[in-house]
Structures are given as structure tokens and as C-alpha cells.
Amino acid sequence: MALQQPAAPATVSGYGDCITWPFRSSEWIGRVVLQSLIALIPFVGSMALAGWVLTATDSMHAGDPTVPPPGFYLRRGARLYFVAFVWGLIASVVLYGTMFAFFGLFFQQTTAPGPAILFAFGGWFAFILLIGVTTHAAFLFIVPGAVEADERGALSGLNPIPAVADVFRHPKDSLIAALIAYLAWIIAGLGASLCYVGILLTFGYGALVFAGALYVYERNTKVSAAQ
Amino acid sequence: MSATPRSARLSSLGEVVAILVASAAVWVALIVIVGVLFFAVFIPAVTFSGRGEIPGNFPVYPGAHLDSAFASRAGGCTTVEAGWSTGDGAERVIAFYQQQLSTGAWTLTDTRQSGSATILDFKSSSGDNPEGYLAVESTPYSSATHISLTLAKTTTAVSNCHVLVGVAG
Questions:
Q1: Is the pLDDT of residue A145 over 90?
Q2: Contact across the interface for B19 and A111, Cβ inside 8 Å
Q3: A75, B42: Cβ pair inside 8 Å?
Q4: ipTM above 0.90, yes or no
Q5: Which of A57, A197, B31, B161 has CB atoms 3.0–4.6 Å from B152's, for a disulfide?
Q6: Are residues A60 and A12 in contact, defined by beta-carbon separation less than 8 angstroms?
Q7: Could you tell me which residues come within 8 angstroms of residue B113 by beta carbon, excluding any fewer than 6 positions away?
Q8: Quick one: closest CA in A to B77, which residue?
């Protein structure tokens, strides 16, 4: 029986397609693995990955949802990388600064079994819970923030107000996009459980799932998204 | 809102280089700051957390270097464990403490040998009734001497704290 020619890639119609759209490209595995390898390069790799993701969304907006060939998409990814780096830096400083302060205060005090130490551990667990809730809530703003950063540029993209406004203006889309971004984050890290070798596949694939969420969110919420 | 056309969403090469250099520089600076905070603030804060609990009138061997000080509270007693090191020989350190712990509020209650260490039991009649022992021991393969203090003191009026083989009770 003759093999059928692969059908032309269909468009990404909704959030459900974010998970499956990369499989429609015939060379997706090789491209994902190579781009994941590039992403391991410090600084340059992250910027290239951001550019690769945005190039994927560009192809989806152009009606041709194919996985872009691996490469150093530095000029395309620079503004998103910059905004993500700055916000990541702020979040890290706040998080680790608070942790250092907590540990510092804890060890400055005389360790005391009893109510005081229970209070300290209670405070620690409350702090961890707060971090968990905050990081999960932050996913609501990741996709709108990335769309705004890509659209507005590096410096203007740092302003969080448009992304926050987008979340309130399009709560349903923001919530679903957040869930897809959360899924992409879990997928991207899954490979680490296979002696870290697996991230060569899951890192890039997770990025493509995120690209799908970016595309669908921008298409649904921005009037002039396809320009 | 007028969106930037997708084809125009490219940064210049100069921007790319500037962002990469700036992010690498920030990352290096952050690692340096975290390293300094860890070794200059966090580690000393942990290692010397009990420094303030060592009685102010406790005699410290001249020139001895404080290596660590920990304190813990239980049942109205505060237990302090501290260690010093000095380049002087153990005999001189023992003689110093035998003399210092027999004057003022301090009373030397016993001097005994435990392995290679000399143990000096003491107590004090000062406010929080501290009592405990010093272990003075020559550091193996060096001329230094290590001084270990284990001390219990009363933090409430109703309790009476003692050190029993290194345990406050």
C-alpha cells in the first residue's frame, strides 16, 4: 500500500491544539532536540529559545503552523528574553531575600524548643504556602505579559499594567492560557526525571506548547494580532 | 491600541548584544552578592548565634579565637555551647582557668581528666546561677589548644539548671 502524503498542517484552532500542534510537522523531533540543545547555552540559549517560540507563533499567525527549524533567533527573542529576565530577577531577589532574612532572623534568636520554635516553623510553612500560591497565581500573567512584551518592546514591555489589564479584560482566556502555560512548564521539566537527558526533548516541546498558548491568546484577545 | 506589526518585532544587533552583556553582568553580580551574603552574614549568624548568651563575666583566655557559639532553651534553662582555639599550650590554658574560675563569683568545683581532655567543672553565684564545664584539649597534629564550654543557666525564677554529662536539666 502506498504511503499517503502528509496533509498540510491544519491551523491551531483552540487551546486544546496547543499540545498537539507540534506533531503535525514531520521533522518536529529533530528540531525540538536541536533547539533544546541550543537552549542549554547560558544566556544566548534562552534568548534563542524565546525567539524560536515567537517565530513559531509568527508562523501560526501566518496560517502555517509548523515547528521552525532550530537556530539562534536572537533578534526575535531579545525583547521577550529581556522582560522575562528582569521580572525573573525581581522575583528571585524578593523570594531569596525573604528566605535569607527568615533564616537570618531564625538563627539570630536562641533556638528554643516549645512555642517559639513552633511559631518559627509555622511561619516557615506559611511562607512556603505563600510562595506556592503566589507562583501559581503568577501563571495568570505570564502569557499576557509575554504577548505585551513582544508587542511593546523591551523597555515598554517591563510595564506590567497592560498585562494585568489584559487579565481583567479577558479573564477566561487568561485562565486557560495560564493552565496551558502551567502544563508547558510541567512538560518542560519532565525530562529532568530521566537523568536530565530527557529535557532535550521535553524542554523544546514544552516551549512549543507555550508558543501555542501565546498564539491562541493573542489571536483571541488582540484585534490586530495577525499583522 | 495600535499593535506593532509582527515583522517589525525584531531587535537590532546592538540591542541583542547589550541585553546579553547586561544580563550576564547582572547574573555575575548577583552570584557575587549572594556569595558574600552567605559567607559574611549567614554563616557567621548561624555559627555565632549563641554569642550573646555567654555570661559577660565569664573569663575568656587572652587571645583565644571564638570558633562557634550555640544556645538552646528548654524548661527554663539556657544551654550554651561555645568553642575557642588558641595557639598556647593546654597547660597554660588550664592554669589560667583554674585561677580565673576560683575568683569572684566563680567557683571551680572539680578538675578531672577525660581521655586527652582536661575537664574543669565550675559554677557561679551570679544572677542566673550558671554552671557547667570547660574541656581543654590539645588539637591533634598542631600546637593549638581547643577550649569547649558547656554551660547551663537559669532563665526563670522557678527552675534550677544543672549540666549533667553535657545535658542541661
A1: yes
A2: no
A3: no
A4: no
A5: B161
A6: yes
A7: B119
A8: A112
